[in-house]
Amino acid sequence: MIPAVQMGYSRCQTESFNRKKSYMCRLLGYLGPPITLDRWLIKPEHSLIEQSYQPREMETALLNADGFGLGWHHPDRTEDAFVYRSVLPIWNDVNLSPLSRYIESGCALAYIRSATPGQAISIDNCQPFQRGRLLFIHNGFIEDFRQSLYRPIRDRLCDVAYHSIQGSTDSEHIFALLIHQLEAQPSLSLSAALDQTLKQLCELSHDQGIRTLANVIVSDGQQLVFSRFATSAPQPSLYWLRDDFKFPKSVIVASEPLFDADWTVCQPSTLVQVSADIEIQSRPLDFA
């Protein structure tokens, strides 16, 4: 349970905040030399744990208490990505600290969830979503998803992408669109696949007259590709930090800065690719 007294809120105030629309989750990604997960997940002063109960840049919710997840790649072996997910608030999971001190990875994602009203609190709806070496996390929402884009997205999917969906969230359906791009065009780069996915989301959203927000991070163990995107302003916050003295030869992507440093604000309607050698390429999403 969130410590309301610690945060200076009464129980009534906290319950009132919980009844607000809570679309905004928090994202975190790391690419660089293999390190234990706790160094960027738990130890920073504004860690993902603190962001779960005291976020600084969320406009529509106070808490991210509807589950969390980690995804990572083995530093030495080429195999499917690993995922650990829970429906507990991140501050309540007693396994997180020992796991994050044990697991080392040079490419990993983390996520805390603030569930869209009406969406189930279930393990199938917790991110990261994983398929083979792909890991995917999404911060945002599709407005009135079940009545707007639920069917149009599914109608566009190949069988592989369609049957990959296990839960009910708009986020997983966006991931299915990405899987569809990669299945339909096996030679497509990950950045091009995400670009095409967001373009389709934009077209579908305009057709339905609804708003879509899609800050996304996707990885395959060798690179991070991420976007800051919405069909209309404002867009959820997103930052990256490259080659900080605390994390040399690495890139961290985060919804909110984890500590004082020279963070770069990801510009609105932008797609960014971080390669294995930590080179960053950024380009505007010209359809947005």
Low-confidence stretches: 1-23
Secondary-structure element series: HHEHHEEHEEEHHHHEEEEEEE
CATH superfamily: Aminohydrolase, N-terminal nucleophile (Ntn) domain
Number of strands: 13
CATH class: Alpha Beta
What structural class is derived from the secondary structure elements? alpha+beta
The CATH architecture category equals 4-Layer Sandwich
Tally of individual helices: 9
Question: What is the radius of gyration computed over CA atoms, rounded to a whole number of angstroms?
Answer: 18 Å
CATH topology: Glutamine Phosphoribosylpyrophosphate, subunit 1, domain 1
Mean pLDDT: 89
Strand % is: 25-35%
Sketch the major β-sheet: 7 strands, antiparallel
User: What is the CA-CA span between the terminal residues?
Assistant: 39 Å
Number of domains: 1
Shape: globular
**Largest beta sheet: strand ordering:** 3-2-4-1-10-9-11
Helix content: 25-40%
Structural commentary:
With 288 residues, this protein is of the alpha+beta class. The chain has a single domain, classed as Aminohydrolase, N-terminal nucleophile (Ntn) domain (Glutamine Phosphoribosylpyrophosphate, subunit 1, domain 1). It is 26% helix and 28% strand. It has nine helices and 13 strands. The strands form two sheets. A seven-stranded antiparallel sheet has the order 3-2-4-1-10-9-11. It has a six-stranded antiparallel sheet with strand order 5-6-7-8-12-13, covered by helices on one side. The N and C termini lie far apart (39 Å).
